[in-house]
Recover the amino acids of this structure.
């Protein structure tokens, strides 16, 4: 069974850092492209970042470029999101999801999300 | 950035109704549109990809259509479990963007 499970969320002060992790199982992780998508409380979905299986292709939303870094460790079946210089507007549930370029980058398997709260 | 405008923002419907949700892109995006369903406190679920392809395991009462700038998802014979919020997403250009969502409520 395909599973992705996020962790690492929590309360952080503005300007602080946090590293989210996404543990994958049930599939050959290194062959899969991955994305991070976030959802502020009571709001809609916002795509954050994408990484190809080989890490050769990485994309970011303008709102996080230069502050967030996506990475993966295929040997550990894990995806990461390093978040620096956090702002109040980064407060959201962060989801990781498998993403298929073959299917025009649709995302089908999603984790349950991890909540990041940026507040003093 | 490509703007995705969904309509309506919310709707009330009864079990058995046929429901159509529309998404309009601010520029032509071929068929690079996907539809997701989200229930409160849950992760989004992929329903339709590439405008009209039904994701595996999704009931056949869901269907999608459109190309260019105008897209729809239709639910034939709405079921209790379909009451949720629906989002469209474009992946034609970076940044990938979502519509604001359509909440389907029980009448």
């Amino acid at each position: 069974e395909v599973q992705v499970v996020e962790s690492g969320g929590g309360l952080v002060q503005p300007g602080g850092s946090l590293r989210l992790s996404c543990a994958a199982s049930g599939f050959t992780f290194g062959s899969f492209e991955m994305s991070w998508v976030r959802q502020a409380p009571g709001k809609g979905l916002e795509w954050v970042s994408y990484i190809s299986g080989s890490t050769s292709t990485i994309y970011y939303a303008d709102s996080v470029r230069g502050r967030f870094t996506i990475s993966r460790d295929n040997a550990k079946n894990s995806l990461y999101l390093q978040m620096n210089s956090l702002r109040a507007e980064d407060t959201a549930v962060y989801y990781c999801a498998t993403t298929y370029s073959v299917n025009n980058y649709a995302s089908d398997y999603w984790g349950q999300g991890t909540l990041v709260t940026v507040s003093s | 950035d490509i703007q995705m405008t969904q309509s309506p923002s919310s709707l009330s419907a009864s079990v058995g109704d046929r429901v159509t949700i529309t998404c309009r892109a601010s520029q032509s995006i071929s068929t690079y549109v996907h539809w997701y369903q989200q229930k409160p406190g849950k992760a989004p679920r992929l329903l339709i990809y590439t405008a009209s392809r039904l994701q595996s395991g999704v009931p056949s009462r869901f269907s999608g259509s459109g190309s260019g700038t105008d897209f729809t998802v239709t639910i034939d014979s709405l079921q209790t479990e379909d009451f949720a919020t629906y989002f469209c997403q474009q992946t034609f250009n970076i940044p990938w963007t979502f519509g604001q969502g359509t909440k389907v409520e029980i009448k």
User: Anything to note?
Assistant: Chain A has a mean pLDDT of 96. Chain A touches chain B at residues 37, 44-47, 50, 59, 61-62, 95, 97, 103-108, 110-113 (CB under 8 Å).
